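Input.
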Amino acid sequence: MLNYLWLGFFVAAFIAGLGQWLLGGDREIFTRLMQATFDMGRLSVEIALGLVGVLCFWLGLLRIAERSGLAQALARLLAPLFRRLMPGVPAGDPALASITMNLAANMMGLDNAATPMGIRAMEQLQKLNPLKDTASNAQILFLVLNTSAVTLFPVTILLYRAQQGAADPAAVFIPILLATSASTLVGLLSVALVQRIRLRDPVILAYFGGFGLLLAGLMAWLSGLPADQMAEISGLLGNFILFTAIIAILVVAAWRRVPVYEAFVDGAKEGFAVAVRIIPYLVAMLVAIGVLRASGLLDAVTGAIAAVVHALGLDSGFVEALPTALMKPFSGSGARAMMLETMQAHGVDSFPATLAAIVQGSTETTFYVLAVYFGAVGIRKVRHALACGLLADLAGIVAAILVAYWFFG
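Output.
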């Protein structure tokens, strides 16, 4: 899918450029297209290398969190919930431990650790699956929760905003939390409806009721604030929560006799390697998106959508962030490139760029997760997994737009 999408960007840009030259008499169009390839290639490297320092810090901190057992503690906290959401999985089965570890790692932003845990969980669930080429109920629920899971610490999004010079990178912290919560809720409810999971179970109600009350209280408090203070409060709370988490990780690790400095340096060594590793993906997608914009086609599409939105009497400020939203289900690297290109084109603190960051943090990449997790165990018949995952994506995108207008509109 991504191969055809990437190729389509270049072909569409070429056809649009050809039309502007032959029909519109624009003799500079191909000069602009080639200049876009040079500019975006250089920008890709600058972005990746600019992330080295912050990547080193957060990867070092997350290594401390792993060694201190905080991820395992969060997994134990979630275990009773998943025993009830997946009644087909026997109590005490090792799959439950892997599932909770995977989702706990996702919540903490431990992406590198989450994927191997997720594949292991899918393999263990496959052992319980009587139809080896067809996804089981438990596997579908696990996958949908992965594509929509709540991210408590959207570190990657904040890193990119900081690298692009945002006045307050953490201003999107609470909006992302609200949007990803909506995505998770819709994903869970859609799967529960199809699989007839008994959500009125006291344990399930306790978990989701408690989290819902916290979010409701937060929203009620924010709704009483003047509009111009909401983004400021979001940044204040976001920075406070993030720094509190840093202190908590360090203190807990030290209390458990983890050599915090050595663990930090060990994890931080990966920062440069990660920054270099993402350069090819950034170059590929940013150049493709750059030529698409230079051809005028991207602006034409968003302009047409904006015209329809205006005709309906609605504000069209969100339209410039739609490329990130439309790319998100297909490619994480593509959506990230769309977000960065929006930041470059409109400014990191502009409304479209801020909304793109919230959209980027609201869901996971459904098609990628489905391909990796189901492909790892040979599942070909996905049943309702794709539909429920895309429904969760849609809920996250709509929630991101509404929350962005609430905080920054």
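The two ends are 35 Å apart (CA to CA).
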